[in-house]
Amino acid sequence: KQWYQRRVAITAGIKNKKESENVFEIFRLREKDIPVENFEIKSKVMSLSWDPKGPRFAVIQGEQGRTDVSFFKIGEKILPIGKTLTNKKCNCIKWSPLGQYCVLAGLNNISFDGVLEFWDIGGDAPTLMNEASHFMVTNIAWDPTGRYVCSSNTYGGHSVENGYNMWNFQGSKVFEASLEGFIQFQWRPRPPTLLREKDIKDVKKNMKSYTRDFEIKDKLSQSKASKELIEKRRAVYDEFMTYRRKKEKSTDCDSALIPLL
After folding, report:
1. Using CA atoms, how far apart are residues 50 and 54, in angstroms rounded to an integer?
2. Beta bridge partners of 177
3. Would you state the pLDDT for residue 94?
4. What are all long-range contacts of 99-103, with beta carbons under 8 Å and residues at least 24 apart?
5. Which residues contact 205 (CB under 8 A, 6 or more apart)?
6. How many whole angstroms separate alpha carbon 70 and alpha carbon 48?
7. How many helices (DSSP H) and strands (DSSP E) are in the chain?
């Protein structure tokens, strides 16, 4: 059984004792009489995971080494998001804590070649943002802001090529480190916001006005920095010109004395 924000529960069972046919039941807990909706996936299901912020979930189906990935959204009905992604080298789906973005990864499996696929599930169909790899990857961890994700190869999983890679949410590598005997990677927890839900909504609603205010402050700051730089350069220039005039005057005096010698 899996839950989505205490609104919907999913249970899964095997149809007619066949592992290749799975029946899912969706319980809408916040609706009257808790209606139940069934849907089938006619292949072995390896994993199911919820988008933590949206009414979406992903399913990995098939056999080890040859898997397909399907995304679904829950509205009045359960509908697929685009077409099923076929022949994927993955056994794990890791969603961003902010939802919409996810990483398909093959963990603890050399045959998957450490393939990492970064997907955007926010549209009418899944969009592949980037494909990368981290050989012998054993763990995937998103940072609490949803801006970065870390792939790691720990000593507990493999004894060679231990270390971690850092990626942004679009799949571009921003940092990598090799550490012999590397055991674990953890992000520092992000403290809860002090803003109320109403305050957060107001900020999002008035984001354009806040953006204009910050742009004005940035320009003023840049102007101040430019002014200070110009004044510094002017002072250096004036000092040099004073020195030059002094030397020119000294040279003129020496030139006037030469005919008298």
Report:
1. 8
2. 164
3. 94
4. 99/51, 99/52, 99/53, 99/54, 99/56, 99/146, 100/51, 100/53, 100/54, 101/129, 101/146, 101/169, 102/51, 102/58, 103/140, 103/149
5. none
6. 10
7. 2, 17
Residue pair 103/118 in contact by the 8 Å Cβ criterion = yes
The two tokens of residue 159 are 């004894």
Q: Could you give the CA distance from residue 178 to residue 243 in angstroms, rounded to a whole number?
A: 55
* Top-ranked range on mean pLDDT: pick from 8-12, 175-179, 208-212, 247-251: 175-179
pLDDT of residue 142: 96
Q: How far apart are CA 250 and CA 261, in angstroms?
A: 17
* pLDDT tens by residue, 89-128: 888 899 999 999 999 998 887 777 789 999 999 889 999 9
Give the pLDDT of residue 197. Answer: 87
Both tokens of 147, joined, read 């801006």
Burial of 197 from C-beta contacts in 10 A (0-12 / 13-18 / 19+)? exposed
pLDDT at 6: 47
Which one-letter amino acid corresponds to residue 22?
N
Average pLDDT rounded to a whole number, residues 185-212: 87
Q: Give yes or no for a contact between 164 and 181, defined as CB atoms under 8 angstroms apart.
A: no
Closest by CA position to 58, among listed 81, 75, 39, 37: 81
Candidates 98, 6, 17; CA nearest to 52 is 98
pTM for this structure?
0.69
Beta pairing partners, 65: none
